Amino acid sequence: MSGQINVGFIGNPNCGKTTLFNAYTGAKLKVANWPGVTVEKKEGMFSAHGVDFKLVDLPGIYSLTSYTMEEKLSRGYILSDDVDVIVDVVDASNLERNLYLTLQLIELGKPVVVALNMMDIVEERGMEIDLHRLPEMLGVPTIPVSARKKRGLDVLMHAVVHHRDKTLDALEHHHHRTSVKMGGRHRHNHHNEHTMVYSDDIEDLIDEITKRLRVHYGNIPNPRWHSLKILEQDEEILAQFPLAAAGVPNLEKEIINQKYDFIEEIVEEVLVGRSAKVEMTEKIDRVLTHPFWGAPVFLGIMAVVFFLTFTIGDKLADGFGVLLELFSGQVERLLVAIGASEAVVSLAADGVIAGVGGILTFLPNIFILFLALAILEDSGYMSRIAYVMDGIMGKIGLSGRAFIPMLLGFGCTVPAVMASRALENPKDRLRTIIITPFMSCSARLPVYVLFSKMFFAENAMFVAYSMYVIGLLVAIIVALLISKLGKKREKHSLLIELPEYKAPNAHSIVIYVWEKVKDYLTKAGTTIFVASVILWVLQNFNLSGMTNNMSESFAAYIGKAVAPLLGPVGLGYWQIAVAIISGLAAKEVVVSSCSVLFEIGNINSNEGMAELAGILAAMGFGAINAYALMVFCLLYTPCVAAVATIKKETNSWKWAMFSAVFQVIVAWICAFAVYQIGSLIF
Amino acid sequence: MTVLDCGIGSYKVVSVATPYELERRLEALGLTEGTRLDILGKKRNGASVIKVRGTRFAIGAEIAAGITIEEERG
Q1: Residue A143 forms beta bridges with which residues?
Q2: Are A131 and A223 in the same domain?
Q3: Which of A93, A181, A291, A554 is 20 to 30 Å from A465 by CA-CA measure?
Q4: Distance (Å, rounded) from C-alpha A474 to C-alpha A472?
Q5: A136-140, A174-178, A264-268, A338-342: which has the minimum mean pLDDT?
Q6: Domains: count for chain A
Q7: Are residues A326 and A215 in the same domain?
Q8: Does B12 touch chain A (CB under 8 A)?
Q9: B28 lies within 8 A of chain A by CB
Q10: Residue A57 half-sphere exposure, CB side, CA atoms within 13 Å?
Q11: Nearest CA distance, B23 vs chain A (angstrom)
């Protein structure tokens, strides 16, 4: 036996499983996909009690049938040899729902340890759980923990170590009411062996099928579980053991009901002081999911989010900018002092620091935006938004659930496209993937911040807001067009749990935001760095070598070739054309390119903006051009990473390419409308 | 009557008739005959917030129309 224990974390959605998982592994986890399917797999390692643990976070599920991908996957994985101990994370404040999965897990016959999570919430509500009686009735160790407050973590793993080799202990303590009654005709008393004992007629059938399994298939592990699955007519198990299934009635509903009946008994016995006060969640929901006020409240919340993003973000960005200038000056002096050639000084100061550094000054805005999204997700509000938006989304042929990927698109298109996995219908998924890139992601924010401040002075924030609205409107219109083009309108129904509201957990939010900030910094260090260097080369060289005349450089040649196409939309300048093309690497590059192309030191400072605005004005590039540029940047292909993600999620280059080209066309049409109409009016 | 026709209040599930897989999923959530079902919220398009066995769910109009319920007695 190896020294490592493989632990599978499993539980209902919203039971705090991921918070508990993070409490053990911190941000040190490996995220990948389960082989062959688009379901995320998280793994983390850690040591305690002198043992190495490998933790695997399984998808959040309600049951172990084989109807959904997540359930099939979790079941198969638990039954495999890759799992030594199952940690079943149970939301103690919602025992009735969570114990259903627990009973199913116990029936699998592997060692199960129940982590009774959210005990702090149970206490807050003035409830108590009989921690002596509950494990007696379940027949497995039950450890109270609080993932949010990091309590009970050690005890839980201690229990895992101790129960790794034990299958179920004999149960002596519980007899359900249903079968204790006199005159039960079933031959033996199963209460000593199993947690969940069914009515006599079902137990008779289990014995019968178990016998058949032994006759036809030898000694398979856990025949009781297989017999139950055959009684539930589980397709996977039926296909495996056809000979044992002949003539067996479908008792799935009966089995479900008896499990829930047993759970009711457990809850009655172990839960003391069931919340007498009106639950907070229902009070809050009366406002947040109000049939009329729900939508305005949501829009208000989003307005506040963006307000904070712009105002607080800008305040922080100013400080950042000062540091950047100091740094840039120092580097330039240092390079000159050590006698570096003019080309090297220029590459460092005008290429790398202007490009990468300029982008780093937007980090505070992006930090605030992701912080807000993390809080919305962690508090439990996100699933309410699906309900609130169900009406509007229904009109464009999608369920409210499709709005969640769109909302996440305000953060970053890549995870947003991945979030469309939550939609079961493949056509809905595809449509959601097509419209999500129109949602204005955080990488486009620097473009709005820069150009709206330069050209719209006191209305800057308003102009930047308008981009978010335009993006949303274009997404809705495109979805509507696709749904009208589709032959028949299918029914898309919403089904989503509305979890209890809870105060967001600092640890989870720190991990979430840190991941995004790290991504942003990595992008600045890689994609934007490389793009800035390439751009600097293209702009300082031509066929005859290095040149000081930028309008004779490679960049100018390329830009001048493309510029005529952008003329009708008010962007027919070679520098802008180059910035837009390089923006395909990442949208922030549009801004970093501008700093490199126009040789601006710190583009996100008042002096930098004044300088750039002066240059642009001299070129005849005014407010209408700037607005057209913002609209174009909002709508055209987000970035190579987004295209690659769309390819991965649709598993089709055709769709990925279609969406990329389609976005450029939409961007051109909208910018054209803005520029032409704007030029007529002003 | 179905969840679609009813306002906020407490009811009992009589039957569930939705497409096969969805029906199985609802059953696994404990939405079986005889279960108590509370309607907590309702939108004009028929989407509803229901509470079944201790959990709140938001359901769309199509699912709401598939769940037949009756007034809870006594």
Answers
A1: A115
A2: no
A3: A291
A4: 6
A5: A174-178
A6: 3
A7: no
A8: no
A9: yes
A10: 25
A11: 10
Determine the distance in angstroms separating the CA of A94 from the nearest CA of chain B, rounded to an integer.
6
Helix (H) or strand (E) holding A540: helix A529-540
pLDDT band at A173 (very low <50, low <70, confident <90, very high): very low
Together in a domain, A322 and A368: yes
Map out the domains of chain B with their CATH numbers.
3-71 (2.30.30.90)
Residue A275: phi and psi, rounded to 5, are -35, 110
Would the CB atoms of A495 and B22 count as touching at under 8 Å? yes
Q: Does the residue A674 lie in any domain?
A: yes
- CA–CA distances in Å: residue A82 to residues A86, A564, A593: 11, 60, 50
Give the structural domain span for A83.
Answer: 4-163
- What pLDDT band is residue A428 in, cutting at 50, 70 and 90? confident
- pLDDT tens-place string over residues A374-419: 898 888 898 999 999 998 888 888 888 899 899 989 988 888 888 8
Instruction: Nearest chain B residue to A399 by CA: give it.
Output: B60
- Of A23-37, A351-365, A488-502, B39-53, least confident by mean pLDDT is A23-37
* CB pair distance less than 8 Å for A253 and B33: yes
B26 interaction partners in chain A (CB closer than 8 Å): 495
Q: Does residue A170 carry a pLDDT above 60?
A: no
In a domain? residue A615: yes
B57 to chain A, any CB pair closer than 8 A? The answer is yes
CATH of the domain at A86: 3.40.50.300
Mean pLDDT across A278-291: 84
Distance of CA B29 to the CA centre of its chain: 11
Looking at the fold, whether A331 and A300 belong to one and the same domain comes out as yes
Measured in angstroms, the CA of A277 and the nearest CA of chain B are apart by 15
B53 — contact with chain A (CB < 8 Å)? yes
CA of B14, closest CA in chain A: separation in Å? 13
Q: Which of B30, B43, B45 sits opposite A260 (nearest CB)?
A: B30
For residue A457, what are its two tokens?
Answer: 């002075």
Q: Which residues of A393-406 are buried (b: 16+ CB within 10 A; e: fewer)?
A: bbebbbbbbbbbbb
Best of B37, B56, B67 to disrupt the A interface (most A CBs within 10 Å) is B56
Decide if A289 contacts A384 (C-beta within 8 A): yes
- Tell whether B54 lies on the interface with A, counting CB pairs under 8 A: yes
